[in-house]
Amino acid sequence: MFEDKPHAEGAAVVAAAGEALQALCQELNLDEGSAAEALDDFTAIRGNYSLEGEVTHWLACSLYVACRKSIIPTVGKGIMEGNCVSLTRILRSAKLRGCCCPMSPGQLTFWQP
Description:
By secondary structure, the protein is of the alpha+beta class. The chain has a single domain, classed as Cyclin A, domain 1, CATH 1.10.472.10. Helix content is about 55%, strand content about 15%. It has a two-stranded antiparallel sheet. It has a two-stranded antiparallel ribbon with strand order 3-4. The longest helix is centred in the first third of the chain and has 25 residues, at about 5-30. It is globular, with a radius of gyration of 15 Å. The relative contact order is 0.13. InterPro entries: RB_fam (IPR028309). One of its GO terms (biological process) is regulation of transcription by RNA polymerase II. This is RB transcriptional corepressor like 1. It comes from Homo sapiens (Human).
């Protein structure tokens, strides 16, 4: 009986995160693949760590990583890494002012508008 309550709360958080992520993706005009990857990453991280603060802020971080990992074919035979959504746009859409975001593995940068 007590085991069902945390599971139900976790499912509610993930459902709310999905709705928040959908709103962010609509505002940023993002593809479904990046959105799905961001939600999967958020869910995996939330399962292993205790995330404090606004869910939207954590979603913005996972969305940034998903955007950086995306690969888009170009007109020639080349590819473009990233989907051209800037960190600034993601942070503004998530209403995040001043944060620590990973730029690459092991490297952190502080952003303040």
